[in-house]
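Predict structure. Chain length: 294.
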Amino acid sequence: MIIRFYGVRGSTAVPGAHTAKYGGNTSCVHIELENGHDLVLDAGTGIRCLGQKLAKKPTPVSILLSHGHWDHIQGYPFFAPIYEPGRDINVYIDVESQHQMLCSLFEQMDGSNFPVKAEDLPSNGVCKFKGVESELYEREGIKVIKRPINHPGGGIAYKINENEMTCAYVTDNELDPPYAMETNYDEWVKYLQGVDVMIHDAQYTEDDMPHKHGWGHSLISQVRQLATDAEVKLLVMFHHDPDRSDSELDEIQIENENYLKSHRAPARSVCAAEGLSITLTKPILGGETHIDIG
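Prediction complete.
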């Protein structure tokens, strides 16, 4: 399993000198499965560059959306494979009741806000409801376990298991919200227990509070604690605040390493950056998954 990051920012894209190291595109993560097929997590502006790569492959593309907010869908009209005649693209969402919210992915392509209409796309792009777990297990041989996130408007976290290698994608999740929780902290610890890679929303610092409490994102310090309590192997801090500079993220990376070392946690930690690649391999004779960060 190879995990690559194409967009790591939250809220809005922020190109510029102060974001050149970690990147300024909004949420998009690519997982290349062992069978060579492609799983895409969210369709923020980062999906444009991913599309340039995937346009060279004939294999199917499966897209999992966490939710329908603008920074997670706005890159889809620029995703090159959707313009390839007959290309097999499957977009999965959670349940049919969220159709109106999540299919804003397609509604933005209405001929007015974007010149190409979704119904005119030549690819075999479809939006499927329910059965994410069974559909993807049947098509790709992977197990997907969902969990509702704590975020205004709702949304879904995904835990992906392929040949006993696990990656959890938990973006736009507030661990201690002032509103009613969909998933409480203890449930998150159980859900994420022992995963190889935990990609988690880490948008805010204590200085951002209390003004942004309830906005649907977690404190960096809370995410460190969650990684420790859940005994994850690699923590990837994700969905960086658009105002967070490269130098500030460098400082956060040092703080993460010091925190995990002082707490004797099993986790390693890295701040997500565009171009970051994580390769998971399982030894032929069994044992711990090997994690290579490049």
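Summary: The chain is about 20% helix and 25% strand.
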